[in-house]
Amino acid sequence: MSLVRLDKFLADSGLGTRSQAKLLIKKGLLSVNGAPALRPEQKVDPEADEIFCDGRLLSHSSLHYYMLHKPAGYVSATDDPTAPTVLSLLKGAPGRGLFPVGRLDKDTEGLLLITDDGPLAHRLLSPRHHVDKVYLVKADGAVTDDDLAWLRTGVDIGEKAPTLPAGAKLLSLEAENNRPVSFVELTIHEGKFHQVKRMFQVIGKPVLFLKRLSMGSLTLDDSLAPGAFRPLTEEEIVALKHPKSPLQSNCSEGKRKGSD
Ligand code: URA
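That is the input. Now the predicted structure with uracil docked in place:
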């Protein structure tokens, strides 16, 4: 662990000269581990401290965050005696103790966040936080307006209470082997076991294919093929950790180059 002065750390991070860095601190734009940082001489540990400038993460956190495009055939677990796990797809990626945030069924594809940040995972999965999850559903049969209204209002899937109100949008109605199939975008705010499949089972249009498109602020990167992964960007990490603090421009590239 090596401690450095906050203004030196900012200058070393490319935010400008030491005096420009002091100005940012004076303006109250800095925080260290969630607390406002108002003294240029404050000592920080760039490896361990979470240092934000105007909502932008500057420090190199020792935690790891990956977006995986989960393919079918992999289980969302850290190990499994019978099937390959999603973690086997991240071989060689830095990070010990990585785990998937939540579960997608073995045959479900799409966005899976893999991290070693336990508190963040806890927050994203906690029923209290109602994080939106958006799915592309291919369903057997023609989904009707009544079905959509039912999905939106709440479906009795055999739990204590019906599912919470959801977003449901019919994307297209097609024919496959002379049978109707429907493509629906479903947004749910909870994560009951096999929830999407159970909801569509109840409306009588069983799921044929399921893919998660987004979770909270995190959206599956179109350029990731099934089985591929990439580290999250700083912006994606900040948006997940601090959903209500959009990035602002005070600590942006332009300022760093001294365009003040
Ligand atoms: N709902 C399901 O039924 N399966 C999943 O994998 C995710 C949500």
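The pocket of uracil is lined by residues 104-105, 108, 194-197, 210 (CB under 6 Å).
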